[in-house]
Amino acid sequence: MAEPQEELIAAITGLLQIVRKLRSPSGCSWDREQTVASLSPYMLEEAYEVADAIEKNDMDLLRTELGDLLLHVIMSADICEERGEFSLRDVVEGISEKLIRRHPHVFERQNGLSAKDVEKQWEAIKALEKKDEGFFSSIPSVMPALQTAWRIQQRASEVGFDWPDAGGALRKIFEEIHEFETALQSDDMKAQNAELGDVFFSMVNYCRLLGFEPEAVLRSNNRKFIDRFTRMERILREAGYSLAESDIEMMENAWQRAKLE
Predict the structure, then answer these.
(1) pLDDT in tens, 114-143
(2) pTM, whole model, 2 decimals?
(3) d(CA 123, CA 102)
(4) Residue-number span of the structural domain to which 159 is assigned
């Protein structure tokens, strides 16, 4: 059930007042010294922690992490207001206006649009708003490389620059692997780097065409490896060996047993 509007406004106002107290001359020296640039790495970290809580389906943790992220949004906006650039109100009004502008099917009573139609309309409106910018300018340069590659390919597909099916993208992976193997026959590290990058880029494209998000795929595999490695370590420990005392054959045998658990 939605909270009363007055209580929500009071809670957000209270948080803003706390932030301003922390940054005041009588507040916290660390908070007072922060800039939007210095807060940027922390904001990225908090965004990842939000995503981690979502993947864990931990609602108590998600509430906490969303609060941490909100703190960074409010503090960054307040720092910009101190510098005379914009305020938290400008931020809220700006996103409100954008949402209305990009949802004419809701606010101008256009009916009958599918989710796919809505997505296309959103991108078309965004393109008009950014018509004087580069085609890929909306993709943040600080995103993880896998996610950036996925968004680049997604954007290219919106104008028809895409494989007709996933089969073509899969064949491209094998082609790029062959080119990488050829580059390995030389001492040209630059060529090897470039060809290996093509392999990664092609694999991301294949993920996209299959409907997978590559960051999520790799995170899942990372967790699987950690879980299996932890089981392998336990099997070795139960046999009386530490990891340092185990050779590769012992670890491989324990690894295969861990896969069966």
Answers:
(1) 777 767 776 777 766 666 577 888 888 888
(2) 0.68
(3) 9
(4) 133-212
- Tell me how many degrees the CA angle 75-80-85 measures, rounded to the nearest 5: 155
Residues contacting residue 104 through CB under 8 Å, at least 6 positions apart: 110, 121, 125
Nearest to 172 by CA among 150, 194, 202, 149: 202
Q: Which two tokens stand for residue 32?
A: 């007072």
CA–CA gap between residue 99 and residue 93 (Å, rounded): 10
Q: In this structure, what token pair is assigned to residue 43?
A: 């904001």
Last residue of a domain, one of 101, 125, 151: 101
Residue 63 C-alpha from the chain's centroid: 18
Residues 201 and 254 in one domain: no
CA distance 118 to 255: 48
Q: What share of the chain is helix, strand, coil (3-state, %, to 5)?
A: 75, 0, 25
Residue 233 lies in a domain: yes
CATH number, residue 76:
1.10.287.1080
Q: Rounded to whole angstroms, how far apart are CA atoms 254 and 261?
A: 11
- Determine the length of the chain: 261
Domain count, the chain: 3
| Cα dihedral sign, 83-86-92-94 | negative
At 82, phi and psi to the nearest 5?
-60, -35
Tell whether 149 and 224 lie within a shared domain: no
Q: Are residues 225 and 193 in the same domain?
A: no
pLDDT digits (tens, 9 = 90+) for 218-239: 999 999 999 999 999 999 999 9
